[in-house]
Amino acid sequence: SSSLPEYFVVPSSLADQDLKLYSYSFIGRRMPLWSWNHPNGSALVRMANIKDVLQQRRIDQRICNAITRSHPLRSDVYKSDLDKCLPNIQEIQAAHIKLKQLCVNEPFEETEEKWLSSLENTHWLEYIR
Description:
This is MTMRA protein. The protein is mainly alpha-helical.
């Protein structure tokens, strides 16, 4: 994938040939990418959707098992579909524009109550939380 870094962390139990084979199954060949690690062993791994629905369960299970084996406490993998629970880029951009307009056009001192409700209506604070 041209959008992945040259080097990245993967569970040691996934062989290189498996990763190459699996990469064709992901949209944009965006294989799982270990993005963050916590001292307690928790990790954030992100990946694109798997194209072939028939292969999805098998590949997903293989990757999740490899991640579980890599965890010091052998904790189960918790999966979340961020497409369903996070705003898309257009919503974030619209919220940012509303926030900028609010900060430039609305004098805070004169209309504190209106300003705070207008700030809430931008959804900016919700998105950055």
